[in-house]
Amino acid sequence: MTETIRLTAAQALVRHVAAQMTEEGVPFIAGCWAIFGHGNVAGLGEALYPMQDKLPTYRGHCEQTMAHCAIAYAKQLRRKRAMAVTSSIGPGATNMVTAAALAHVNRLPVLLLPGDVFADRGPDPVLQQIEAFGDGTVSVNDTFKTVSRYFDRISRPEHLLTALPRAFRTMTDPADCGPVTLSLCQDVQAEAFDFPVSFFEPRVWRRRRPHPDPAELADVADSLKGARRPVIVAGGGVHYSGATDSLRAFAERHNIPVTETQAGKSALPWDHPLNLGPIGVTGGEPANTVCAEADLVLGVGTRFQDFTTGSWGLFANPARRLVSLNVAAYDAGKHLAEPLVCDAKVGLEALSAALGAHTAPGEVTGLKPEWFAKVDPVTAAPADSNEPPTDMQVIGAVQRGAGDTTVVMCAAGSMPGELHKLWKAGRPGSYHMEYGFSCMGYEIPGAMGIKMAQPDADVICFTGDGTYMMANSEMATAAMMGVSFTVVVTDNRGFGCINRLQMGSGGAEFNNMLDHTVHQTPSTIDFAAHARALGATAVKVASIAELEQALARRHEITGPYVVVIDTDPYASTPHGGTWWEVAVPEVSEREQVKQAYQGYLANKKVQRTN
What we know:
By secondary structure, this protein is an alpha/beta fold. The protein folds into 3 domains: 4-204, Rossmann fold, CATH 3.40.50; 214-365, Rossmann fold; 369-566, Thiamin diphosphate (ThDP)-binding fold, Pyr/PP domains (Rossmann fold, 3-Layer(aba) Sandwich). The chain contains 24 helices and 22 strands. Helix 1 (9-18) runs parallel beside helix 2 and helix 16 packs across helix 17 (415-422). It is globular.
């Protein structure tokens, strides 16, 4: 007979999760973030308590930002490990939906464990329960279905026997990787079942590396051999595969220049001769110039997001061919690309062997020196001035103070575009940008997650005043836990990035900057004082020189360190970039909108759909 052990569903879940291991011999789920409430405190909370030595439990202040921390942890570790996050039912659960969407877009693993309604429906409707008038099987947790790679509702304890292996298969599969949601009916969490003892034996989840199909490999090799101006677009898949060395060897052996997406940035050192730097809307002139002329574009581990492709107006050569090397067939086939479905590392090495001694005939000279001659001055320290500094000057100050262990991170607002263009990433993993969902509020908890993943890293987070106001509560968590990182808050008094987009689309300045909104009392937020109230060490500086002095003290401080500086909301790097499609009104009484619409039509003419 099969040996069994009687456990509640919650106890079985925790034991099984703790027994799932990586190839390195550590638990795949490194810990569980939890805010307890009705729906998870009695069941899952009791199950987590005795397992803290094997599955640590951390308490945050908001379900969404706890999940952001967990996702950043997984991203920084290149999906080798992940975290779980649990919530109560109702608003606690729906708070995690945004984070689930972020993880889904970025192909990142996280195990979400929201509480759910009673499976037996005895006390219905319970506090915070959503009732679907026409469907008795629906709960609020059905909102997770569209933003989860795997979703399951645990309405019987034995459901875990199939649901948990599926969950871990999803989180560890390179092609299907993403958020998993196990919706835990609150009465079922406390119900007992005789589980097989074998269900709790340690299991190693190996990182699969799919090899390319021989026919696809031969076709792509032939395409590259026939190309006169090939270019590589390196995406996040290069990092997740651990393929940065393979990419470098491939580019050098075959003389093919490399461009980097936001997720792919730092795949090659910034000063490598074949690294042409950032591509697309937030890209630089070297990459965008070569991409516009390329007759073959080889995407490696990229989703070909619109910011990368210039809304599909960047690759302008009429003869260009699109090749996509991607572990996910869904991504490899986008825009009628010639697919090469495989792991990035394995695929690049196999493709290099198929190419043999072939080298691309083109040369790329002069573009990078010309680019840096233009943009280095915008990051230089300014002369003494009463004018607020620019975002670019703030980046320059941080760059000058960066060290070998520095990891810069950001997610939304003005800084992602400027960092993509201007930050000089010297090693893989030193640039952490969440730009798949570009989610305001990721920054502060994300910085905490990075530091938890890499305790020796010097983590520097860029965030604006708007994002700070949206999600700052995990600053208190970091302070209590003693997690050390630096936050540079650039206060431009509003949503400066979207204000510039509004103006660039012909719109009037409206409802973005605090000066252009209807307020009875002007805003006088003291961000440094607020950060100190949460437990951080914080200071406000009045110049770039003071910023550099403040940053130099960061290694002396334990816990989060916040440096606030007022910045110019209108300035941006005038060089580089390409078109990004934002629909402009076809009819308007304002002349600025009419002019913007004509520019929109002109750009639509060069947009390619295949």
